[in-house]
Write a structure and sequence with these properties.
433 residues, mainly alpha, Hydantoin permease, globular, disordered C terminus
């Protein structure tokens, strides 16, 4: 099929002739990626906060997180490069390997969750006619096919012409139905269970942050960086706000429970939502896992990586269960919030948006490791961990400031301070990957 005879984009800059996605394409892409049952599940955790704190955290966190997401994507669209390559000027070529490995791990986790949700829901909705592993195989194959088709085909053919309209329609029905079936007066007056505004903010920001190591993989195909930035920001913020709000209305974090609850409202629309939207989320995860791997092993065929990661995720979906999802979100924030505090500071402040091909593809020192970035990232991650509920010294009775803002600021300021003390050296033309 011509649809799947697409170039392998790899890690080199995309040529101008292939930069063909506009602002509307990115609005559609990122609004679709912001939809999903896992977002509903994440939103349900905010039921532990007061209604006012939850809504404020949803709005502030979605907008702030989407701004960070769009800024990270702009580095890719400015230079036509994928996400892991945007980290090389600050972290070094070899220094980017650790973020790449951690990103692949989280992406396999996300793909596993997505396939698991689709398979469980299909099994339940089909009345257990076919076993769970059958559906896992079917949806795994669909995800692999979308990955092989590539970002341009998925954005313009699958989403733009078909999938996004079903996603919008089913999402609207879900949210309206939840509003109509919820006692809004009781919900608004609910004091919650002690979760603070800042703790709720951490959980909201974790969702757009989880996409930051992927965003440039898709935004590198932008005709214009500015239109891609605004399309990404508006699209993701809109659906993140809506689905976190729907999660608060639903009030259960158990994914199977969410499926049962929505199934009770309407039967057929759920299946459409699952097949259409969870599939494109899984596509983005598995495609970017392949691109991130190529940051380390650039010569491995991308299609083989896509098939391999999809198969691994489908197998994991058959042997693991969705547990400790809240912990998973907090860990993502602890790792990637300070990491992109460094990357964004390096690009927009230290180097003033002036990356060269030498910075991206040649070693800047003998080791190929940006020690300044590693130090700032490590301290930022430590700050995030110590201020989060994951920490053994976490004391919820103290005034809460959350973990996201302090860790982002710590990593950014430390990296900036080191950069001022140790000016960036020119890249040696002889130091190659």
């Amino acid at each position: 099929m011509a649809l799947f005879k697409t170039p392998e984009w790899g890690i080199k800059p995309v040529q101008d002739k292939h930069k063909m996605l506009g602002g509307l394409d990115y609005f559609i892409l990122w609004s679709s990626l912001g939809v999903g049952l896992l977002v509903l599940s994440a939103g349900s955790f905010l039921s532990a906060a007061s209604f006012f704190d939850a809504i404020l955290a949803i709005i502030v966190g979605s907008v702030a997180g989407s701004i960070l997401l769009a800024l990270a994507g702009k580095i890719g669209s400015d230079h036509g490069i994928p996400s892991l390559i945007t980290m090389r000027p600050s972290f070094g070529i070899r220094g980017s390997y650790l973020p790449a490995i951690l990103n692949v791990m989280q992406l396999v986790g996300w793909t596993t969750f997505e396939i698991m949700i689709m398979a469980r829901a299909a099994e339940m909705l089909a009345g257990n006619v076919m076993p769970y592993y059958f559906w896992g195989t079917i949806f795994g194959a669909l995800v692999a096919l979308l990955g092989i088709a590539g970002p341009l085909n998925v954005a313009r053919q699958w989403l733009g012409k078909f999938a996004v309209w079903i996603a919008y329609g089913t999402s609207a029905i879900i949210i309206v139905s939840l509003i109509n079936s919820t006692d809004m007066t009781a919900l608004i007056s609910s004091p919650g269970e002690g979760m603070s505004f800042f703790s709720a903010l951490d959980l909201v920001i974790a969702m757009p942050v989880s996409w930051m190591p992927l965003v440039a993989d898709y935004n590198r195909f932008a005709k214009k960086s500015k239109s891609a930035l605004w399309g990404t920001l508006a699209g993701f913020a809109m659906t993140n706000i809506l689905f976190y709000f729907a999660g608060v209305l639903l009030g259960t974090s158990d994914v199977i429970g969410i499926i049962v609850a929505i199934q009770a409202i309407f039967f057929g629309f759920l299946m459409l939502l699952l097949i259409v939207d969870e599939a494109d989320n899984a596509f983005a995860d598995v495609y970017s896992a392949a691109v991130s791997t190529q940051d380390i092993f650039s010569k491995i065929n991308q299609k083989y990586l896509i098939i391999g990661f999809t198969a691994l995720s489908a197998i994991l979906a058959m042997v693991v269960s969705v547990q400790d999802y809240e912990v998973f979100l907090l860990l993502i924030g602890a790792i990637f919030v300070p990491l992109f505090g460094v990357v964004l500071t390096d690009y927009y402040i230290v180097r003033k948006r002036k990356y060269t091909e030498q910075m991206l593809y040649l070693r800047q020192n003998r080791l190929g490791i940006g020690t300044s970035a590693i130090i700032a990232w490590a301290i930022g991650a430590l700050v995030n961990y110590l201020l989060s509920p994951l920490s053994p010294i976490y004391m919820p009775q103290l005034p809460a400031i959350g973990a996201t803002i302090p860790s982002l600021a710590a990593a950014s300021l430390i990296y900036l301070a080191i950069a001022r003390i140790r000016p960036q050296k020119k890249t040696a033309a002889s130091s190659r990957t």
